[in-house]
Amino acid sequence: MMMKCLFPALLCLLAGCSSPTPDSPQKAQVARVSPARTFSMEQLCKETAAHRYNTGTQNIAVTRFERFQASYEMRGFTPRDEGFVCAFDTEGQFLHLSMR
Fold first, then answer.
1. Residue 82 φ/ψ, nearest 5 degrees
2. Residue 75, exposed/middle/buried by CB under 10 A (0-12, 13-18, 19+)?
3. φ, ψ for residue 29 (rounded to 5)?
4. What share of the chain is helix, strand, coil (3-state, %, to 5)?
5. Mean pLDDT by groups of 10 residues along the chain of 100 residues
6. Could you tell me the pTM of the whole model?
7. What span, in angstroms and rounded, lies between the C-alpha atoms of 50 and 12?
């Protein structure tokens, strides 16, 4: 008798855990930035950070490039180990520089 009551509840729990996979990925997830555009984004990030931290662009290190659904981020640091993040929109246009 107890098994008859548990089986439908267990079935509902398992059905709730599974989720259908989307047929088509979102546009922001499949968007690609060309290597040339990535390079220009990195240069703009370095120039902006160098101006903000009062140093030369050759002293700025960009260490990571991440893609999100609605933006891109470049993380880096200065010779004095001051961290920063440059944010770009999905088209690769500069949004802002954040100090970390």
1. -90, 120
2. middle
3. -80, -25
4. 40, 25, 35
5. 50 48 50 82 96 95 93 95 95 92
6. 0.65
7. 57
